Structure formats: C-alpha cells, structure tokens
Amino acid sequence: MAGPVLIARVPGTPFTLDDLRHDYGVSETARAAFEFGRLVNVSDLGTLETFDLLYPAAIRQKALAWASLAPSSILRQGASNMAPDLEIALPQSIRRAHAAAYEIVGDRMVARVEPECVIFRVSSSKDLSATMIVAARVRAVRPRTRVFAFGRIFEEEGLLARAVKLFDAIALGDIFPVAEILSTEPRHWSLVPNLAYHDGARLTLTGLKPFASHSLPPTTGPEKFLYTLPAEYSKINVFDVLALESRDESELSMRRSNEPLPTMSTLRSIADQLNSRAIHFRGMEHSDDATLERRLLASGLSVNFSCALDPARAAKNRMGLMAAAGCAAVDVDLSSGSQRLLDTYYHREFTITDAERLMRASKFSGIFTTAHVTYPCTQDDYHTEDETLRLIRRANPSSVVVTPEPPKFGSGAKGLLAQEFGPFRRHLRSRALRQAAALKEKIRELNIPLDIDAATAQLAGLAGFRGREAEFTELTGLQLLAGDTTGLAETIERINAAAARPARISAFRPFTADGNAVAN
Description:
13 strands; 41% helix; six-stranded parallel sheet; 19 helices; alpha/beta
C-alpha cells in the first residue's frame, strides 16, 4: 500500500501577512491527494509559532535594531506579498540564524513518519530559499522519500534552474498534479504538462499548457478541501474560496432549485465550523455577471470578502451590488495604461475608458481599489509610462502595485540552465527594478499609496484600520521585520475576532441627523 503524502509550505523570511493565511494551493493539493486515495498530512509553517521560532530573543534584538532604520517603503514591502522579486537584504547574522532554524524544522518534519513523498508549495523567491534548506534536510533524514515542489513562481527560468536538481520534479502551477505524478513511473513524466525534472544528465521541461482558470469544484464540506491546524497554532482566519457561481451559468441552471450551490455550502461551513466570515474569492476576474453577489444577498450570508476583477468583464454598475454583498477590497489588473500595449502586447479585451470607469465606480462604492500595473515590459517606453501615469491620475485608485514583467522561458540564449538569468540578464533585471522604482516615485508624488493589495487592505479593515491602510502596512511591516511576536499576535487576534463576526452587523442602524454638522 502506498505511503502517506505530506504537503508542506515553508514561508521564507521576512514573513508577510499573506504567509500567515491559509494557503489555497496547499488546500487544493491536499484535496486532490485525498480524492486520489492517499493519507494526507499538511505541514503549513506559516504560523505565529514558526515566526517565534525564527526570532529568539538574541535575534529579535538584532532584527529590531535593523528594522528601526528601515524606511516606510521597505516596511510596506515587508507587509505585502506583491513584490517577490525584491528581497529585503536582512543582515547576515539574522540569515544564518534563520537557516539553522529551518534545518531544525526540516528534521522535525519527517522525524516520526516516513512519507512516500513530500510536496512543497512555493509562492515566492524568498520562500524558495527556505524551502530548499528544509528539502535538503528531508532528503538527508529520509533518503527514500521523494521530494517535489510546485508553484507559479517557477515560470521564471532562473528560479527553476536554481531548484530543479534538488527536487525529483517541479510542477509549474498553483496546484500539484498528484494523480498524474504518483500514478506513473518517472519515465512517463514526459506526458505530464508543465513539469520540469532532472534525470542526472539533462533538464527536461514538458510541454507548457495554459493553466486552468478554475480547479475542480469542491464537494461537500470544507474538510474535503480546506486544511485545519491544531488549536495551538495561530493563523489568520481568512480563507480562499473558488467563486463557482460565476463560472458557468448553464451548469447552474441544471441544478435543482433547492440544491445548495458549492460556494454557498462552503461559506456556511467556514462560518459554522471554522468561525470565520472573511473570504478571498478566486476566479471573480473570469466572471462577467453578478451571480455570486446576488446569491450572497439572497442567502443572508454576511461575509467580508476581497477579490480580483478584470475590466473587460466587470461592469461599473456591478460595484454597488458588490459593496452591498460585503466586498471590502478589489484588485484590478490593468497591465498598462497604454491602449496600444493592451491591444498588441497584452491582448486584453478592454479599453482605458473601461478601466477608468470601473475604478472610479469601485471607489465611489466604498471599496478599496488596487490597480495592478506591469512595468516595464519589453515594449514599454517613456510614452507608455506617461499614459500609465495619466490613467492612474484620472482614476485615482486607493493604491497601486507596480511589478516588472518577469522573465519567461526561452527569453535568453542560455535557456533554463542559466544561473540567475546570467550576467547580462541580471543587468536587465536590475535595470527593470530601477525603472519600476522610478514609476513608483512618480505615483507617490500623486499622493497615492503603493504596494497595498486587496488582501492586505481587507486585513487592515478587519484590524480596525479602515481608511488607514498605509498605517496598517507600516505597523505590521515593522512587526514582521523586527520579530515582534507579541505585537503580531495581538494583530492576528483582532483580525480573527472581526472575521468571526457578521460583516454587516450594523448595516441597518436608523439614521440620526447631526445637528452640529455644517450644511445639514
């Protein structure tokens, strides 16, 4: 009989708030392994207890002294997970202490049992550094255990080349193909798309296929697709849920009218069993209707949620309904403010006017609106930079996240075996980061906050910092960089307490006029 499967997640330092949340890729991979008939164990190290292990008293003093000198922009980078390419330069003494702690974690992970395989979820370059330390210890302690990794971050050639020799195979995607890998011999892995592995002599990359927009729909309750940790482990109780109601209207029409829909059943289970009403909906950017919002209002479920929207599919008249349904924050993927690049390079299906109207309507509805811009890409110049700035100036979003275009496969002569993109490509990467920093500085002059994504804004609102999201990111950024376990525990406690309450608990208070207000 096949042995158990261990699905692990090892956040690297510095931690982010996103590291302390329940991870969608881990939960979906655990569900896939469970449905494949394997005994599944989850080891998610994104907990307050792991954070405390990484910052003992001696290291905490050094970290606090270093973090106190960090500018506010660095603190916001530490609180947001939207800039994985920009790794904060921690002092070497702190890095060595963290590496030693991760080796202890690796020994503990497989000390009692010998799993058939360990599958690591990697979401950023800093996580990869920590994961490689843990994976090396797993290999040393359990040499017969197969070790895998997966994540969209491996779409970057340099990160894949850096890690591929350590793992038996690496899957490029948010969910690991458990059945395809564990049911076949390594000689047949070439038939599995989006897979990279090293056979000792050469690197093999199988055929790349577009990633599915949606995974399989969840079945009955959260125990089938959400993982829970023992009560002594502290995490932020915000859960990712697939927005199935907006996936296929024809599929929904075939269901019986009294049959609960998967997402509604999931939300009720999370509220009743996991004591949380804070949700991040995945897949909303693929929706062009307001089915989910209407069903939320009709069901009486009072949730606080964030999501991503595509200007090509989200109409501006939808935002009021989303706000009424409990939407606190949205990410709007603009790609660029240049219509030429949208049409010819990114192949997006919306106009600049569509994007501007959507962001204006979102802010007017009281929703925190984050504009995501890719800059620079290979086709950007000073004209497209000015056009992007013009759109941001006119739409005036709540925050802007600027991310350089990541290098893709086949974009360099050395290919996949390039070490960190090679000297010339490292130079190009450094130049891209400088250009992105220059654009950020121009956006900062417009008095628009930077690097606050919808997930962080949602946490800020739950923690009582609505309208003061920049202050929240700086506060939590300092806690995360300085190893302030006590302060971070208080922040998590406030977030979880708010997440457990209905989102619209005071929605129907009677109106009372303020006689002292001007012009009332």
